[in-house]
Write a structure and sequence with these properties.
Layout lengths: L1 H22 L10 H9 L13 H16 L4 H14 L7 H13 L8 H9 L12 H6 L3 H13 L5 H18 L6 H23 L5 H13 L6 H8 L9 H10 L6 H4 L3 H11 L4 H16 L6 H6 L3 H21 L1
Helix pairs in contact: 1-15, 1-16, 1-18, 3-4, 3-18, 4-5, 5-6, 8-9, 9-10, 9-16, 10-11, 11-13, 13-15, 13-16, 15-16
This protein binds ADP-ribosyl-L-arginine and magnesium ion (MG) (3 copies).
One magnesium ion binds next to helix 16.
Length: 344
């Protein structure tokens, strides 16, 4: 059982890296042609070894995993500093201008204790960020904790180091929950999967409403819509993008990643029929266009957690930078996870 778990833990972080590396070429492209995308992945084996670079999505995921493994728990100052130092060491990974600014502040101010959350609260004229940068790096949290309440709490805390807007950190919680449910499901039923996410997000969005004086539950609303769309035949990508989005806002990309995973449980077209579950999820989500590296990375983390390594495209793995490290981090997180299970 531990062996099978190891495969799923590894495939989750590897899936995140593959989605990032393969998606990054098209980031910001509204219309991605399936023909080009298929040609890209078929040509992977002609490339020089490991030359497909990862971006900020993977850089930050590695920091989350590294900090959790070393401290065996969430330590805010350490994690914030890891993000900032990783950025300083290698700033040309496609970070957004907003987050680059935040890292400069973290490095300059030498913040301690609760102060590390302050720069994030100052972002966007004090509104905080609702970008998908917290969701894109959250997969290690679902691999570190067996307990769902811990996952929600730690996902929120890590998110708030950079994303103080409710849509930013709730998006991270939703993505962490999706990885968690995928990891522990032997045979995903689309409707029950979405219903489990709604059941967890309902109270989270309701309590957010209490403090923001709003009746809206935007993530639950999209999840409800998802149930309808998962049952539709001949769904066009324009329809999917219109309903779920493909942008840099967490609300326009986390639901899209979850939809991609569920939609690709069965190969939807002949083109994708030759691919493994993880591979077709990544190809499909990049094809949706927009914030392709991030949506494919999040969809890849969910799909990898479900399918395990049997489904990982070994060809792709050889040509994407950061796969080995992802596997090592997954092993470290599994050890942590097993210790927590024993302590229960
Ligand atoms: N940034 C990119 N890609 C485009 C730029 C590439 C780069 N400059 C290059 O030269 O290669 N990709 C990466 O960023 C996304 C994650 O962003 P994150 O970490 O959430 O950043 P930020 O700045 O917090 O938010 C992103 C954008 O969202 C809008 N936004 C967020 N909160 C807002 C608010 N309260 N009010 C108004 N706008 C808000 C802004 O436009 C932010 O720039 C991933 O795609 C990752 O791959
Ligand atoms: Mg790469
Ligand atoms: Mg990126
Ligand atoms: Mg992106």
């Amino acid at each position: 059982d531990v062996v099978r778990s190891r495969f799923r833990f590894r495939a989750s972080l590897v899936g995140a890296v593959l989605g990032d590396c393969i998606g990054s070429k098209y980031e910001g492209t509204a219309r991605v042609r399936m023909q080009n995308l298929i040609a890209d992945v078929r040509a992977l084996h002609e490339r020089d070894t490991r030359d497909l670079r990862y971006t900020d999505d993977t850089a930050m995921t590695r920091s989350v995993a590294g900090s959790l493994i070393v401290h065996e728990k969430f330590v805010a100052e350490d994690m914030a500093l890891r993000f900032a130092k990783e950025f300083q060491k290698d700033p040309c990974r496609g970070y957004s201008p907003g987050i680059s600014n935040l890292f400069e502040k973290l490095l300059q101010r030498n913040l301690t204790g609760g102060e590390v959350f302050r720069p994030a609260e100052e972002q966007f004229q004090g509104k905080g960020s609702y970008g998908n940068g917290a969701a894109m790096r959250v997969a290690p949290v679902a691999l570190a904790y067996p307990d769902i309440d811990c996952i929600k709490e730690v996902a929120r805390q890590i998110a708030r180091l950079t994303h103080a807007h409710v849509l930013g950190y709730n998006g991270a919680i939703l993505q962490a929950l999706a990885v968690h449910f995928a990891l522990h499901d032997e045979n995903v039923d689309k409707m029950s999967f979405v219903n489990k996410l709604i059941a967890e997000m309902e109270p989270i969005e309701a309590s957010a409403n209490a403090s923001f004086n709003s009746a809206d539950k935007p993530y639950c609303k999209k999840l409800e819509k998802m149930k309808e769309y998962l049952n539709k035949k001949n769904l066009s990508k324009e329809d999917v993008v219109k309903q779920f989005g493909h942008g840099v806002r967490a609300l326009d990309s986390v639901p899209t990643a979850i939809f991609s995973f569920l939609h690709c449980l069965e190969p939807e077209s002949e083109i994708l029929a030759g691919f493994s579950g993880l591979a077709r999820t990544i190809v499909y989500s990049v094809w949706l266009g927009g914030d392709t590296d991030t949506i494919a990375s999040m969809a890849g983390a969910i799909a990898g957690a479900y399918y395990g390594v049997e489904s990982s495209p070994t060809q792709w793995m050889q040509y994407c930078e950061g796969v080995k490290e992802a596997e090592q981090n997954a092993d470290g997180l599994l050890a942590l996870y097993c210790r927590r299970v024993q302590e229960r």
